[in-house]
Amino acid sequence: MKSPSERIVAVLRRIPKGKVVTYGQVAELAGVPRAPRLVVQTLHRCGDEVPWHRVIGKRGASVGGVSIKDPLGAKVQRRLLEKEGVKFDRAGGVDLDRFGWHATNSITIR
DNA sequence: ACTTTGACGACTG
DNA sequence: GCAGTCGCCAAAG
User: Residue A83 above 90 pLDDT?
Assistant: First the structure.
């Protein structure tokens, strides 16, 4: 059993392209349902090692990528997701019903 | 070594 | 239904 953050990274790397996941969902998949903050930290740590643009928030998706240091991330994220086929509604939210990653049997932690 | 933060979520009141 | 608080782990100050 590795550290929770390790598992989170593993989960993040398994996110299929064209799909989005919420922090809570990633945390849940990683085995720590109440620790979405860990996902946040993990994204900051790994940064470019994980598809951070596919990680969004329940509120309206665009929360992802908005770091207090680089607020421009949200724009980049939206562009990247649209490039992958994810559509944003006028509220700037992603259609979780269609693009929300349905983690069927993805977790295979090594 | 201790305290505070960190792109959030869920529960309780 | 809304607002406030707690939770989780790690890294930086």
Answer: yes
